[in-house]
Fold this protein.
Amino acid sequence: MTTLNACFRGQLGDFQLDFEFSIPSRGVTALFGPSGCGKTTLLRCIAGLNFLPEGKLEVDGEIWQNGKQFMPTHKRPIGYVFQEPGLFAHLNVKRNLTYGRRRAGIKSSNDNELHELTGLLGIDHLLERDIHALSGGEKQRVAIARALLMKPRLLLMDEPLSALDQDNKNEILPYLEQLHSHLEIPVIYVTHDRREVERLADHLLLLKEGSIIAKGEIGELLTRPDLPFGRAQDAVTVLDGQVRHYDARYGLSTLQIEGGTLEVPDQLGPTGVYKRLRIASTDVSLSHQEALNTTILNRLPAVIWKILPTDGPSLNILLRIGNMGEGSPLLASVTRKSVEQMALKEGQQVYAQIKGASLLGSSSTTQPRAHCMTPLIACE
Amino acid sequence: MSEAIFLTLKLAALTTLILLLVGTPLAWWLSRNRVWWKEIINAMVALPLVLPPTVLGFYLLLAMSPQNAPGGFLKEHFDITLPFTFEGLVIGSVIYSLPFVVQPIRNAFEAIGSQPLEVAATLRASPLDRFLTVALPLARPGFLTGAVLGFAHTVGEFGVVLMIGGNLPGETKVLSIAIYDHVESLEWTQAHILSGGMLVGSFALIFTMMLIEKRWGRLYR
């Protein structure tokens, strides 16, 4: 079980850093913020590519940096995926893939793993190709496979999709979501794209100008009224649901979420498994009474927690599921006109109709995500 | 005549080999280091580009002379005399052709940028490993250019050779000196054969280099 405790405080170039945090032993932690907030610098410090003299870093109880102690990058058991794929132009795909693997001491006879991973990433037919014959998306998938094939104890990804066009992004995201459910190691994922955070992250560090302004579990941060996520026009709610049972007659699975249940198409897996759901705020509508004459299956009692202005013409209503608002937060996008006509007020009991709850990738875990984000080492 | 050709090729090949061995670490250092006095070293390496060869030859002759400190030291402790010997020519050629080998290699190292090396570091490659398995192969075009230019430049050397080597058949009488000799004694035929051979040979060398570069260029981009 890897746990990472970090403290990077001080001046690096013309950058003032003030980062102190821990990340849990599994799941994807997103470093999110505008460009220039120091997220890449922080990632490079963790990899040992940048050296902040006052930094402290401890992974798995092993000290990577502290005072004069500094483990050079090539000795750290990490995988690093850069913004640009950074494949070696003088090697073909296969030799790129095995470059780090051989140096990490993994026998080349163990080719099953290589084929399994390249299959998962959809690059198994490219192994003998030259690098310049690959598309941007293919190159980045090779780079991801190359990092993972070393069996790192920590995977660092620096905006791996930002250099790609929209088509290539859409091509890679599903692979990343699949990896997400396969990986047993912690991932630190740098991005400035809210959609990537919603789809991939379990935990979030929100960065601004060299310091952390919020940290926590993704479902909570996306709906926190004081953060920008909940105020976006296309805001989403991310929920963890536990599979309760499957109704074969209608092809619907029932998921238990905090404060209620949801019915979602398809068999989602064995009972007890946790699944991540993504609900767009525009797919949630409100009514005073439970609307019985509707095709919408999922109607949950909820309480209006806060009415948030957005960057568009509508308002986002932050709800809490349950009669007393004891459950998960949920965002609904409602026009100003409806808010006035229905006289919606904070504290009111309403029903939320959820039109679509899409599953997030194929990610599933047997346990809900960990909540340990408190720093365990002290900065001086 | 064949003696001069053989001597010239031997001198150029040996000089190029030494320059690749000395020039590679020097080019690497120049491309990676950021100390302020780096540019002074850089200017010293580039000096033979602008210095008249006779000036360089004159100072080298003085330095090698047993009457002066460096040459005297070699004479006294190792019984080595450099002026008017093949060894002296090799040393002179190495200094004279240094920028022609170091500059292209340095440019090639700089063109790699820091990213491939950082990537290699995250793939567990130690600094030496990174240099050997990433920097060297990626800088291949620069090595080709450097080797060809260094070789060709040494073949064509005249002023430095005349100053420190003189005109001893089989020892220091290289092609360019031989051609000069033939012209001086109005032996036009021999001068034509050697000069024409040089012209054709040089063209073939440069042309081959460009073909290889073009091929590599396609591969690497």
Remarks:
- Residues 71 and 208 of chain B are 40 Å apart (CA to CA).
